[in-house]
Amino acid sequence: MSETYAVSVEDVSKSFGAFKALNGVTLRVRQGEIYGLLGPNGAGKTTLIRLVCGLFEAHAGTVTVLGQRMPNIGVLRHIGYMTQQAALYPAISVEENVRFFAAINGAEAGVKEALELVHLYDRRDSVVATLSGGMRQRCSLACALVHKPELLLLDEPTVGIDPQLRVEFWEYFRRMAAGGTTMIVSSHVMDEADRCQRLGLIQYGRLLAEGTPADIRAQGGSQNLEEAFLALAGRNES
Amino acid sequence: MSGHRIAAITRRLLQGFRRDRRTLALLFVAPIVILGLLGYLMRGSSSAPNVGIANQDSGPLGAMVADALRQSSHIKTTDINVGDGDAKLKDGSLVAYIVLPADFTQQAQAGNVAPQVHLEGSQPGEDTPVIQSLQPAMIALATRLAGRDVNFQPELTYLYGGANYDTLDYFGAAFVGLVVFFLVFVITIVSFLNERSQGTLERLMASPLRRGEIVVGYMLGFTVLALVQAAEVLVFALAVLKIHNQGNVLLIFGMEALMAIAAVNLGIFLSMFARSEFQAVQFIPLVVVPQVLLSGIIFPVSTEPGPLQWLSDVLPLTYAVDGMRDIMVKGADLTWGSLQLDAGVVLGFCVLLIAAGTATLRRRLA
Q1: Which of B198, B207, B366 lies closest to A104 in CB terms?
Q2: What is the CATH number of domain B50-158?
Q3: Which one, of A169, A216, A157, A204, lies nearest residue A44 by Cα?
Q4: Chain A residue set in contact with B, beta carbons under 8 Å
Q5: Yes or no: domain A7-237 corresponds to CATH 3.40.50.1980
């Protein structure tokens, strides 16, 4: 009997002009799992995430999210998407930003809880333009999860933030996954990979390897994830 | 000062332009388009207005003066019946008509001529060519009367405006709408581009929001701002500048609102074709200036060279400007066919742009 997945990407390809961003990628994410999408810059991680939330249509293959073939606008209210840059409205306050994203998802009740979760409740009246980079990332995360999505897509959520905040972020992610939220987190920072339940390694638009961190270590032949990744990537090149 | 460091700045600037082909193209295309249009408008426009002549004189002198008027290079004449004159002024086919009364020959022989000059009056300065054409006719008349002193006293009447009506009254009516149109367009195109460049548009597209909801939401937000601005402009124009107004203030406001909505949607639509604020700013002269030149604000559409009249007839601003003038100068209300047409065209343009903006939103996300 086939397992049902929160996200299932089947043999997906996507090109931009002559550039093949994704080339026959297949991966499946279970419900309540933290799935780490690893790979160098330009590997196709963001394209894959955008396909999962239906911003593009694949040229070949299918993307299914929460049982619906994407793109599908009905599924979007169950998805939270944190873009790579902290995409916020700089001229309005933290709370106004979070309230806006709550409103377009029809979930205004969750504003206070989301602000408390990212420790921004005390700074809720600050205008976003005056915030530090780390606080903007936290605000952006609050906007992505304010409607309690079943699937959270986080595109390099910890880029440019300090180690302490990174630990806090992963603590949130772990708690949300424990509560049943499925998460796809992209990163090129290998020490974050160990915190994911399963990993997919992407390079040049192809999935090189998939499995638990332990599987990846075994496949790459190294106890160090970074070395294992580089070994797998090197095999792909030759 | 280091020449080397200065050169680095200059070089970097030019390098940026070399890659930004679109900005470069606009930089070199826009002035040619604008100047070419202006040149064609000014050289190609026929400045001779259409003037009707109604000669009711039973004597020979009326016919003689009418003939002299027909020879004039300042005006293009047609013979009309007195009764049709006002109707022809209203429908715009004549800017003036001259009536030579039944006793014109007697008047002339008595040394006192008073041709009746009926002017449409909404454009300042349109009486000048008419008076200019009358002068040689009067000289011819004086010659015919063998140097006798003839007192020339034309009776001027205005259908609209009046003797105190000035240039500001004519331009003011159009500018009240234009100022709102222009400023709202600039604000919208830049802020919609911000939405794109700061990444929030991508978030909106990944939310349950529909494209039409984004476009209409934007439209309402900016329309609220635009209406406040429109009210301010209107009050200033009427109370401080005391621009001539014959019409209903609410109608003017309604027309301003329609123009604002059109401007918002034009801004959203055109923002799809710009990748940066830099490029958007380049659109402003290219989109706004030709429309202003061709809308009849400065050069009446009826005097434009033929091909440009075609272009004017498809530009929405032409109708908006005409509508504003109909209301403010002529006191038009919604029972006027011309105002219905003007308002209808601007409204249709809004609907078209909302649809176009919605349709292009997804395509240009990446």
Answers
A1: B207
A2: 3.40.1710.10
A3: A204
A4: 16, 50, 53-56, 73-74, 76-77, 79, 81, 83-90, 101, 104-106, 143
A5: no
